[in-house]
């Protein structure tokens, strides 16, 4: 029996998909030795625009936390996709629910084409409040090498492979999920790489009493699962987390209850790294994004000093931006933002006049931000210092 699962840890939704039988190996095609997919990071997630069966445009998230790809049932129905099997869906340690597997004939994203892909049918539009139509999981790249450059908004796919003798290469865990060993102040825990999570370091709650925190835990947020939910507590670690040769000093962390049994590394950490994944050989390379050329770098503190708002948008359409969610205890929540808010202007400039890279730089920079927000028809002003 093979177990596959998808985990998307955010303030919106967390999914865990397990399957009792393996899906088919999709046919992934591109010209030459490699292809680069452009990622839209404006929503806080690595999103890619795809075309399904030559006729339906959709927004899919690229999720290293997903070992199977996903499509929303509404879209599957409109495409006329029929079930080719069933699988159990549910969070760890809980009874799953059966869902359909459908086979998609054709998916394209830029110069990349995927044929005969099996996708789990999950209510992802509802779970993410319209942000996502589906998930591109790691099952599509089992025999390929992928390199994530989230800071640049790029995903490179190639026919190459990693060598275990190369610097900065570490072993992946034995299961089908992207797990690596993480050192938390001398305590070792398996950590799941999860680009579908906007969070950072999320630890099992059983580690809390073994770690020194700057001022205990603070706040609490809910994470919605398939048929269940979990809670998050936040704190600042006194000490370091090591990922291979990379050191994060005194990072912000979260604890999730009930426990997943593993740590989770979200894209607020991953975006500062260049991560190359070779699933076929169970190898992974990880270097700081600003230090990629160094083959044998020393331990570096790559904890981001950039601002992080903690807001998620329903895509980027060249007009007012609607908030799909706000992370608990985030800068955005403390500034007064709420899910459903519509941002009309930023610093007096209409949102339609911004390009994505300009917004990304403003959000992560240090310049004070003044937003004009439409909340249920009432215009309010919110400020981020």
In short:
With 385 residues, this protein is mainly beta.
Describe this structure in words.
Helix content is 7%, strand content 43%. With 385 residues, it is mainly beta. Among the domains are: 174-268, Acid Proteases (Cathepsin D, subunit A, domain 1, Beta Barrel); 311-384, Pdz3 Domain, CATH 2.30.42. Strand 10 and strand 11 form a beta hairpin. The longest helix is centred in the last third of the chain and has 9 residues, at 356-364. The chain is globular. It starts with 26 loop residues before the first strand and ends with a strand.
Strand content: 35-45%
Integer average pLDDT? 81
Strand order across the biggest sheet? 16-17-20-15-21-14-13-18-19-24
- Quick one: how many beta strands? 30
What is the C-alpha radius of gyration, as a whole number of Å?
Answer: 20 Å
- Reported CATH architecture of the domain at 174-268: Beta Barrel
Largest sheet: 10 strands, mixed
Q: How helical, in percent, are the residues?
A: under 10%
- What is the CATH fold-level name of the domain at 174-268? Cathepsin D, subunit A, domain 1
Would you identify the regions where 5 or more consecutive residues have pLDDT less than 50? 1-22, 292-305
What's the helix count? 5
Distance between the termini: 52 Å
Q: What structural class do you assign from the helix and strand content?
A: mainly beta
Instruction: Give the name of the CATH superfamily of the domain at 174-268.
Output: Acid Proteases
What keyword list fits this structure?
single chain; Pdz3 Domain; 6-stranded mixed beta barrel; globular; 30 strands; 385 residues; 43% strand; Cathepsin D, subunit A, domain 1; mainly beta
